[in-house]
Amino acid sequence: MAGKKVLIVYAHQEPRSFNGSLKDVAVAELSRQGCTVTVSDLYAMDFEPRATRKDITGALSSPEFFSYSVEAYEAFKKRSLTSDIIAEQKKVQEADLVMFQFPLYWFSVPAILKGWMDRVLCQGFAFDIPGFYDDGLLKGKLAILSLTTGGTADMYWKTGVSGDFRYFLWPLQHGTLHFCGFKVLAPHISFAPEFASEEERRGMVASWAQRLKTIWKEEPIPCSPPWYFGQ
After folding, report:
1. What are the TM regions of this chain, as residue ranges (predicted)?
2. Per the confidence metrics, is the pTM higher than 0.85?
3. Counting Cβ atoms within 10 Å, is residue 32 exposed (0-12), middle (13-18) or buried (19+)?
């Protein structure tokens, strides 16, 4: 949709990977619509995933006992967070939609993407107390997870060996994105691309491109426990 700004936070080491193809087709389709698309390619950026005192450039507010959450909050208010965090926060602040493209690692995000969440979505920027869930500081923005799995779709149902895929989305969509105020669109899950034929993989990429054509018309999911765990 013309005039909209999209940030794609992308976590895969190989540009020619299936995740790379999904990212590329999103950039192409959203750009075609007239959106401004920014990509944070975390591995290419050599993004630092560790939350340490190096993230605070000025004096610590409590040097005798280091608390990352306290110091990051104070540093955000004083504009003394390190430049890589400030750069990512600016991208998030400007975005109407933040899209996360990644392979599922252990029912979660790769460490480099977890580190992005830990460092970028700090108190004062993404949430405050009070100021979380529906009152999160990023309210008014949309978020979507586009992820790939190693396991096949039949493994990720309630009766499957891995349980319902919605179970592993709970900490990411609800505990992180909704906590920060995002309205969360239904996830896009590409199941087991490694075990698919070339033709099937092309179809999976095409279905993502097709969905993106109408992404701005989608309603967010009701991001509350029943969506994940049933009544």
Report:
1. none
2. yes
3. exposed
